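In response to the reviewer comment on reproducibility (Comment 2.3), we provide here a single inverse folding case reported in full, input and output, so that an independent group could reproduce the run without further information from us. The structure tokens appear first.
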């Protein structure tokens, strides 16, 4: 019995989803100001403050900086869209005990 050729069934199209974007640190995404809570020599100390502030509902992050060959870790909350919003955030942080906070521009 002769076999009739059939059209080849194309392979199902599988689209590979684009790679998932890794979230950039808050300082790099938006906002012009943040509230700095402190600068630490030890990353563990900075991370502990970030965990504490995050648990209290604040968007805290570590902003590392190198000064004279030494790595330091700044803990900041934000970013905010403008200085006025950062001042309001700083006042909220002072009310919960973060007395040494200061508003800083994000560069």
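Designed residues, in position order:
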């Amino acid at each position: 019995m002769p076999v009739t050729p059939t059209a080849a069934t194309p392979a199902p199209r599988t689209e590979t989803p684009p790679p998932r974007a890794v979230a950039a640190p808050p300082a790099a995404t938006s906002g012009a100001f943040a509230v700095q809570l402190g600068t630490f020599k030890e990353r563990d100390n900075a991370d502990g403050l970030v965990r504490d502030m995050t648990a209290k509902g604040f968007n805290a992050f570590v902003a590392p900086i190198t000064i004279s060959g030494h790595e330091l870790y700044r803990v900041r909350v934000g970013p905010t869209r403008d200085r006025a919003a950062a001042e309001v955030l700083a006042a909220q942080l002072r009310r919960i005990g973060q007395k040494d906070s200061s508003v800083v521009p994000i560069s």
